[in-house]
Every structure is written in structure tokens, then in C-alpha cells.
Design a protein that fits this description.
This protein is α/β, with parallel strands linked by helices. It is about 40% helix and about 15% strand. It is built from 14 helices and 10 strands. Strands 1, 2, 3, 4, 5, 6, 7, 8, 9 and 10 form a 10-stranded mixed β-sheet that branches. It starts with a strand and ends in a 5-residue tail after the last helix. N-(iminomethyl)-L-glutamic acid binds next to loops. Belongs to the arginase family.
Amino acid sequence: MEKLLPFTKYDLAKVTNHRSGEIKFGEKMHTVPKDIDPISFLNSCEAQYVLLGIPEDIGVRANFGRPGAASAWNVAIQSIANIQHNRFCKGSNLIVLGQINVEDEMKEVEHLDFTDIDDRSKLSKLVEKIDKDVSHIICSIIQLGKTPIVIGGGHNNSYGNIKGTALAKGKPVNAINFDAHSDFRILEGRHSGNGFSYAYEEGFLKKYFVFGLHENYTSKSVLDIIKKTDDRVRYITYDSLKIRKEKDFNLEMFNALEFIKSDYFGIEIDLDAIPNIASSAMTISGFSVEELRQFISFFGRHRNATYLHICEGAPDLGEKKNNHLIGKLIGYLVTDFIKASTVEI
Ligand SMILES: N=CN[C@@H](CCC(=O)O)C(=O)O
């Protein structure tokens, strides 16, 4: 895990606000001790869930998007460290592994211009480099029997999550994606809009379900491709669920689970599906936070749920005064996922 920047107990102490009479997650979560190999530590630690940050937005830049997703990890870990450790959820069930070291890559892209064809190709190459690191770390975590909770970063990291999971399990895996976009776009060089299509094309992704696609932001060509692969790729649109009310949210979650549950699956959450959450493709129309929480709680309950990835949140693009809110939202989602596994289906 050379590309891992471990989160130390001092880092954790710095972000935990101690209050007498209370126990915060930051006082109970595990960190990799200095001079101990992360793999040996993961192997010996009893906690099931492994927090990993990917503070990059190179895939978003390569997709003509607005940078900012690199800032989610920092605000997320600050919020998670200050959740109350109690009978409903225990901080001691989490290992804060750290973040993928993308400092050099982020420096390299500072002056790249995505409208320049050569620069765009450099951006895509850097995304490929990060893909390798993500898939390697995810594979190692899953091989040790742990459950990764990944905080992105752009949605390009779905590729590394899916590939790492498939390599660890020794077979292609499935994915459910709560998203306004399919990210199943053409293979034109890696970016945040084609993580799933690359994983599918390369044989790591078997079945894929997109939950809540926005009809206005899905191209005819993507819809045509999906139509031809109906046995393996399906979707339900946000508009049919929440606007025209032709479909029922709970029933469609059930149907989506029926589709993907035959194999291990990853739960992918793009925060651009939630209105007014700062992100590259921020929206004013979308699912509520409660619906998203119910979604994670529902899918996280299944024994084949193998990882959770929360991405595209970009606190740096939001209002300065309230940029902790994305961290707070991510904290709710992380604990909903952990709580879900105690009611396995
Ligand atoms: N991960 C996001 N992908 C979307 C972004 C859409 C946008 O920037 O408007 C996509 O490529 O379709």
C-alpha cells in the first residue's frame, strides 16, 4: 500500500472535539499504529469497516466538470470523528485507514486546461494512474474480509472500487448506483463520466443498476446502449419515480435489489443526486436526504453488499460558512450503512 497516506492517532485527535460526559467516534475509531504495516494491522484489528479517502478531482476535470470534490474527505472525517459513540452505532467498529496519496497528481493538474486536447489526455492518464492505486487498496481491504467505506473524489473512482472488489472476489461483481447520471458514457479516455462503462467493458462489472437517472441529463446514445444490454444494465429514472409517480420508490428499490443481489455488489452514491449539495453537477431537483438514507439502509442490509462509495460532494464549491454540512451528510450515510448490516437480509 505505498500510495496510502495513513491517518494517525494524532490526526484523529486533532479533529475530535472532546466534551466531558460524552464519547465521540474519534475516541474509539482505530488508526494504523506508527511503524506497523497497514495490512498486518487490518488483519489483526477486529473492526469491520475501513474508511478510505480519495481527495482528488482529476476525473471531474477530465470530464469538463467543476473541481472541488477533492475537499470532501477532510470535512467528512471531521464530522465522522464527532459522531456520538453509543448503543446505536459504535466508533470502535471503524478503522480510519487514511487517504490515497494524490498530492503529486493534484499538483500536476493545477495548470492543465481540459479544453486543450493534450492536457485532457494527460488528465485521463492521471485518472488511470489513480485507478490502479484505488483498485489495489480496495482489493487488499476486501481480501482481508473487511468492508471499505470510500469517500471520494470524483465518480471516476467507481472503476477502481469495482475492479478491486472483482479481483478480491475472483469474479465480476455487480453495482447499484444512486445517481442523476449513468456514468456509462463512451470509452474516450478515463474521466468521471465513464467509470462504470470501463469496468463493464473490461469484465469487472457484471450487472449494473442506476437508480434515479435524470431524464434531462442522459444522452440518447447512452439510453440506446443500455437498452441493448437489458440483461445486465438497467435503470429507473428519477422523473418516473418522483415527478410522474409512475413507480414506487420502495418497490423499485426491491426490484433493483432482486437484479443485483445474485452476486457481491458495491453501493455507489453520487451526491449530485441530492438538491443543493455542492458538487460539480449540482442540482436543484432530486431525492431528499431521507430517501438517500433509506436507500443505503435498504441495500446495506444485504449480505452481498461489499462496499460503500460516497462521491462527488464538493464542499469547496459551496458556501464557506456551511461547508461542514456535506461532512455531516456523509457521516449520516456512513452510520446508516454500518447500522444496516445488523439487520441482514
Ligand atoms: N460523475 C458525473 N458524471 C456526469 C457529470 C454530468 C455533468 O457534469 O453535467 C456525466 O458525465 O454525465
